[in-house]
Amino acid sequence: MNRINFERFFETEKQKIFGTDFFADAEDYEAWDEIDFESQEDIPGEQTFEVKAEDLKYYAAGVLDDNPFMTDEEYARNSPYGGLIPHPVFLTQITFWCIGVKGRGNWIRTPGARNPGQEVEIYEPFRVGEIIHIKMRPHDRWIKRKKYYLNYKIDFYNQDNVKKACWIVELVLPKSKEDIRKFIKGIRGVEV
Amino acid sequence: MEKVTFDSVQVGQALPSLSHTVSQETFWKNAVASFDYNPVHCDPEWVATAQPFGIPQTVAHGMMTMSFMVSVAANWAFPAMLKITRMQSKFVRPVPAGTTVTCTGVISEKHVISPGKNFVVLELKAENQNNEILGLCKTTVVFPD
């Protein structure tokens, strides 16, 4: 995927250092049939996420939303919110950042994965300056109409351990590492 | 700030809709915004053969379609200081480049609990230019007083 020039879109610090090639480490992604449900201990993310105004503004722009509470720092500062508030689906950016590449939960990067739907709860909006960390655990795995579903429950906390949000992140995945390898080669590894 | 009170809203009330026509550029920019660089959204050459959705085209991020739908709720709720607390989405059809996505919303439930805890449920819907459903999202909006 290095043939695609994403750099022309980059505006934030994080964007300049986050890897764009989801094939590069795909051999290390957890496959559907490899997930360990025995241990229900919380799994930390690979890294924390410092919320910056540029992150909130870019997410809104990326979903074509020009709501000034999300995009205009001065307007938001002078509103009852006192500063920018995130698009409610902004936690997508936090999640991919925090899970990273090598750690548990990296199946969300799997080539060939499909998104059937999501469930999110927000307790408090993320605010600029917060340092967010995640704790996750395998939640459910099932087969339906020959499709392999997996979800993790991810909790989001700030630096004071205030729980900000919860996401049951769910995908339909290739069943096995061998199926992922097919996808990497450009061969369909699942039934549609 | 726009004043919207719990007493003033009604079940069946429609919210202002929005429309976006998406392109490969839209998918790339959303990948950068979300850090989701999955090739099914970003790599037209790969998807021509891999076809996870059974079509030889890249498709929009589900989270982008969900964001479009939730924007209908946010654009109504945020100016009135209402809180979006829950979102449950379901994606029905893939969204290839060239699709015009129109998102609508209606207040489907009004939960009378107590001041500060009263909430409504919005049923949000994304449709393409052929009026086929692309995605659905139930969203809870809490009234602060």
Can you write the helix and strand succession of chain A as a string?
HEEHHHHEEEEH
N/C terminus separation of chain B:
15 Å
> Helix share of residues of chain B?
25-40%
Work out the number of β strands of chain B.
Answer: 5
The first-level CATH class of the domain at 14-22 and 59-142 in chain B is given as Alpha Beta
Count of strand segments of chain A: 6
Largest interface: A-B, 58 and 52 residues
The CATH homologous superfamily name of the domain at 34-51 and 86-183 in chain A equals Hotdog Thioesterase
CATH topology name of the domain at 14-22 and 59-142 in chain B, in short, is Thiol Ester Dehydrase, Chain A
How does this structure look, described?
The complex is a heterodimer of chains A (192) and B (145). By secondary structure, chain A is α+β, with helices and mostly antiparallel strands. Chain A has a domain at 34-51 and 86-183: Roll (Thiol Ester Dehydrase, Chain A). In chain A, 21% of the residues lie in helices and 23% in strands. Chain A has helices at 13-17, 53-62, 68-71, 73-77, 91-99, 177-184, and strands spanning 43-44, 49-50, 119-122, 131-144, 147-157, 163-173. In chain A, strands 1, 2, 3, 4, 5 and 6 form a six-stranded antiparallel beta sheet that branches. The longest helix of chain A has 10 residues, at 53-62. The model of chain A has no long low-confidence stretch (mean pLDDT 95). Chain B has 145 residues and is of the alpha+beta class. Chain B has a domain at 14-22 and 59-142: Thiol Ester Dehydrase, Chain A, CATH 3.10.129. Chain B has helices at 24-34, 39-42, 44-50, 62-77, and strands at residues 14-21, 83-91, 100-111, 119-127, 133-142. Chain B has a five-stranded antiparallel beta sheet, with helices on one face. In chain B, β3 and β4 (119-127) form a beta hairpin. Chain B is elongated and about 55 Å long. The mean pLDDT of chain B is 97. At the A-B interface, α2, α5 and β3 of A face α1, α2, α3, α4 and β2 of B. β3 (119-122) of chain A pairs antiparallel with β2 of chain B.
